[in-house]
Amino acid sequence: MSRTVIRGGLVITASDEMHADVLIEDGRVVALAATGTPTAESWTAERTIDAAGKYVIPGGVDAHTHMELPFGGTFASDTFETGTRAAAWGGTTTIVDFAVQSVGHSLREGLDAWNAKADGQCAIDYAFHMIVSDVNQDTLKEMDLLVQEGVTSFKQFMAYPGVFYSDDGQILRAMQRSAENGGLIMMHAENGIAIDVLVEQALARGETDPRFHGEVRKALLEAEATHRAIKLAQVAGAPLYVVHVSAQEAVAELARARDEGLNVFGETCPQYLFLSTDNLAEPDFEGSKYVCSTPLRPKEHQAALWRGLRTNDLQVVSTDHCPFCFVGQKELGRGDFSKIPNGLPGVENRMDLLHQAVVDGHLSRRRWIEIACATPARMFGLYPKKGTIAPGADADIVIYDPHAEQVMSVETQHMNVDYSAYEGKRVTGRVESVLSRGEPVITEREFTGRAGHGVYTPRSTCQYLL
């Protein structure tokens, strides 16, 4: 039996803060006791971690990543090995990635392909959502089987006609099925049919620079699609989770639905909280580094996103980590913004950026842990195994130095991409050590993990429903 004690830190979960020691046995938390009490002092262990002056927090749960995703004629530049290692460096100990069903193929084929990519490669634990690109009777039956196996969420796209797009009828059928089998539909809410018209018109006018990517993917078309998805879910009697919410008008749609008592949830991402259309407009094609969908919005949208996180109209911050290198990948769109691969790197930056939000007064410490650890675990059926520090939970624990300062840079990051979306940004707070199921993955700023430590983790259904 291997035992570890973490001593003297401030343990922060979504519900509590206390100066406590944490006892770990065989990969799980077995007890917490106030620091200095006879109970805590009596614990002995092979490994003792001194956390005095530090935070002891649950490992982050990033419920939206895309490792090795094929997109726009290329592939996301992080593999499951490099991406999960970078996640660990950033204090994330579980990712939920997306297996992809291709049109004309089964869900099972897509899931098997993604299992093969990840198997034996991950430094931290992982699970899968299923992207549903081809709704038919066979697909609907397979959804039932996948829920039983622990793949309990299904992503659909109102954008990308000809690639991932589902029409309203296909969306309704999948929602009706999820209402029966307990699955959760995740929606990319943008009106892709209308956006394609605007893209065509912009290019015809010679508007080819990256900034036009943001101008054609209008906030109103995100709000319209969000509204439509909510109404379809209401018709189906199904819960709905809207991914990467970027616009204040879309937040308003979610808030309205939640005020009506509907099981409607929203996720935003650090890029929408910290970056803006100013980045898309950077000269010399540098703006291409910031092309993602939904797109970055003007800065005035950020206040609504922060407010939504405080009022719980937005429940989760994930990254939508989907990195493409500037050289050779983003450059595919020189002269035509519609050919720039959509996606940003961020799996390593999320916990630090959200801690900076605590420093800046946007969030409380417990809310930081709630939106980055506990709620994503509850939303996607991983709680209390993941997302908290409590007896019985996996010992996925981060020792976090709230006083260390760092400057984010491509020079110091571990993601497999040739730029940082936050180059030069100074933040307060840094991961010092990380345990995954009790095993040291980062030890005092050294990587001590290994590919293959991370295991596939089946999930129960959503634990966050009203």
Helix content: 25-40%
Q: Tell me the structural class.
A: alpha/beta
Choose one word for the global shape: globular
What is the straight-line distance between the termini?
Answer: 40 Å
Report the C-alpha radius of gyration, rounded.
21 Å
Report the strand count: 18
Beta-strand residue fraction: 15-25%
Helical segment count: 14
The biggest sheet amounts to:
8 strands, mixed
Average the pLDDT over all residues and give the rounded result: 98
In terms of quaternary structure, the protein is single chain
Sequence stretches where pLDDT stays below 50 over 5 or more residues: none
Please give a structural write-up.
- By secondary structure, this protein is of the alpha/beta class.
- Helix content is 31%, strand content 23%.
- It is built from 14 helices and 18 strands.
- It has helices at residues 38-41, 80-89, 107-118, 137-149, 168-181, 192-204, 211-216, 219-236, 248-259, 270-274, 277-280, 302-311, 350-359, 365-379, and strands spanning 3-12, 17-25, 28-34, 47-50, 55-58, 60-65, 70-71, 74-75, 92-100, 125-131, 153-157, 184-188, 240-242, 264-268, 316-317, 397-407, 426-436, 439-442.
- The strands form 3 sheets. Strands 1, 2, 3, 4, 5, 16, 17 and 18 form an 8-stranded mixed β-sheet that branches. An 8-stranded parallel β-sheet has the order 6-9-10-11-12-13-14-15. It has a two-stranded antiparallel ribbon with strand order 7-8.
- A hairpin with a 2-residue loop joins strand 7 and strand 8 (74-75).
- Helix 4 (137-149) runs parallel beside helix 5 (168-181) and helix 8 packs parallel to helix 9 (248-259).
- The longest helix is centred in the middle third of the chain and has 18 residues, at 219-236.
- The model has no long low-confidence stretch (mean pLDDT 98).
